[in-house]
Design a protein that fits this description.
The protein has 7 helices and no strands. It is mostly helical and 168 residues long. Helix 6 runs antiparallel to helix 7. The radius of gyration is 18 Å and the shape is globular.
Length: 168
């Protein structure tokens, strides 16, 4: 079995750990860039997607109740998606806590969010690989949030609450 270089040193220095993490972030960013997921794409996608959200009859009011400064929110979402897609490490926050605070949010909201997300992805598609990667990550996030909300409200009996969410 091939070993990663960091396995050769079981006690790396902080500088070695930092260098390894930086190299891993660079690899992930380069892989994403190679299929069209660069910073411009992420920015354009976030702007387009949240413009749709703001105009949406189901989701628009939920966001309008919670977001006063859209420029700040969009900047935050761009940091979030760069962290997810480029492993940039620049996002800090607790999306689960934010979603737990929304009364009545459920599968219909997450499924609709994903459908809008996927439509936006297809409209801006650079490569099919990029659409699959970004869409898959979005579904994993939606599944995780929906499952966390269900577990918080109903215990472990709802541990796979997102199983019926749509795929890209």
């Amino acid at each position: 079995m091939a070993r990663h270089p960091h396995h050769e040193n079981p006690n790396p220095t902080p500088a070695e750990v930092h260098a390894h993490a930086a190299a891993a972030r660079a690899r992930k960013r380069d892989e994403a860039n190679a299929i069209g997921i660069d910073e411009d794409f992420i920015s354009d996608f976030v702007e387009s997607f949240y413009a749709r959200i703001r105009d949406d009859a189901l989701l628009g009011p939920i966001f309008a109740e919670r977001i006063e400064d859209w420029d700040s929110h969009l900047a935050r979402m761009k940091r979030f998606w760069r962290s997810i897609l480029h492993n940039s490490g620049e996002f800090s926050g607790n999306p689960m806590a934010r979603h737990l605070a929304i009364p009545g949010i459920g599968e219909e909201h997450f499924a609709h969010w994903l459908e809008l997300f996927y439509e936006t992805l297809r409209n801006l598609e650079r490569t099919p690989e990029a659409t699959r990667l970004v869409g898959t990550r979005a579904r994993m996030i939606a599944d995780s949030l929906l499952t966390g909300i269900a577990v918080h409200g109903n215990g472990l009996e709802k541990a796979r609450a997102g199983r019926n969410l749509p795929y890209v």
